Amino acid sequence: MSLELEEAGFDYSVLCECRQRLLASEDPERLLNQMLRRFQELKLLKARGKQRTDSTHVMAAIRLLNRLEMGGETLHPVLNEIAVLEPEWLKAGVVPGWFERYGRSFNEYRLPLEEAQREELALTIGQDGWALLQAIYEDPRTPPSLRELKAVAILRRVWLQQYSLNDEVLCWRAAKNLPPCAIRIQSPYDTEARYSSKRSVDWVGYKIHLTATCDEDGPPLISHVETTAATLPDVEVVEQIHAGLTDLDCLPAHHIVATGYNSAGLFLDSQKDYGIDLISPLRMGNSWQDTAANGFGLSHFQIDWERQMAICPMGKESSSWTLCPKRQGYEVFYIKFRASDWRVCAAREACTRGQRRTISIQTPALYELLKQKRAFQASAEFRELYRQRAGVEGTISQATWV
């Protein structure tokens, strides 16, 4: 529209309504995709260039709840909905004290501070919710429509996560027995929001991954947006990003990402399936041999693929070569050296602290690719390419502020 916010006749609600229509549609990325196609027509966006990806946190539009509030706030809307749909059924089965406890939003109450009192209240809430669920699911006189309510389904899921039955006695789960954050509901008002932590930031909500072009002869343009659960590792989004860029015919030749976006298999898969060179620092070996100044890490061993044999830095050949179950979709070979060689080896203190040396390697294609990647990582060309990843942080800052 190219209008100032103060323009007469302009109303911010127009943009809000447009955003809501896009979110409610089956194609929420329609507007972005139309813009990208227009950029392609203008030669501003091209395939086989360079693009970069990074992520940032998105906080859910909810109030953060502690576990006590979570229970009360989950029961509150359920009872409200039932009171509207089936008031007579609710009156007949209501327990004394429910109206006082759940008649208002739970955040309006002053919760007890003493641990014993908080546990007592948590159990009271749990028993109230359990009694309601039993009445809804087990009483044949219950109207079937109540079992279809979304709020009832949420109540059931929250109670399964927060409470347990031990010898038919309802117990409030200890914190260590709660389900993992990837599946734990944090609020009944947004059941997909998840708690996550990254470096110094803790949040409840989601994660957004922004991919942008970074060619020297063109403007930086956001080419792909992917919103995921806050707990989903960055590495699991790369395939979705590449598939999305394929649909728009704007796959890059070089995709520059942080270490969290890479894995050994992704380097090969990106190259094989999409013709993309994934530019990302490889994690260095974390064994003591790799970190010690004079240790013999995996890179010190020679691999003879034809003979299925490894040769150690002292010239000794391996004694066994075993195919192991797949890791991250790729087969792994487990290689052992003779214990008799270890006992007389002059370099054994730099090699192993066990009774014999063992190493694990990937398939030939993957092993050789990672070897090339590590060599390339030490070059000035890699440093120049990877330096451009930092610019995506400015893109994220602009996008989130807008």
Can you characterise this structure?
The chain is of the alpha+beta class and about 400 residues long. β2 and β3 form a beta hairpin. α3 packs parallel to α6 and α10 crosses α13. The strands form four sheets. Strands 1, 4, 5, 6, 7 and 8 form a six-stranded mixed β-sheet that branches. The chain has a three-stranded antiparallel β-sheet with strand order 11-12-13. It folds into three domains: about 35-55 and about 220-275 and about 385-400, no CATH class; about 65-175, no CATH class; about 290-360, no CATH class. It is about 40% helix and about 20% strand. The chain has 15 helices and 13 strands.
Features:
3 domains; 3-stranded antiparallel beta sheet; 19% strand; single chain; 402 residues; alpha+beta; 15 helices; 6-stranded mixed beta sheet; 13 strands
Structure summarized in a few sentences:
The protein is of the alpha+beta class and 402 residues long. It has 15 helices and 13 strands.
Series of H and E elements: HHEHHHHHHEEEEEHEHEHEEEEHEHHH
Overall number of structural domains:
3
Number of strands: 13
Structural class based on helices, strands and sheet pairing: alpha+beta
SSE blueprint and pairings:
Layout: H1 12-24, H2 30-41, E1 50-59, H3 67-85, H4 87-93, H5 98-102, H6 115-138, H7 144-147, H8 150-162, E2 163-166, E3 169-172, E4 194-198, E5 201-213, E6 222-229, H9 238-247, E7 254-257, H10 264-274, E8 277-279, H11 288-291, E9 302-304, E10 309-311, E11 320-327, E12 330-336, H12 339-343, E13 358-362, H13 364-377, H14 380-387, H15 391-401
Parallel strand pairs: 1-7, 7-8
Antiparallel strand pairs: 1-5, 2-3, 4-5, 5-6, 9-10, 11-12, 12-13
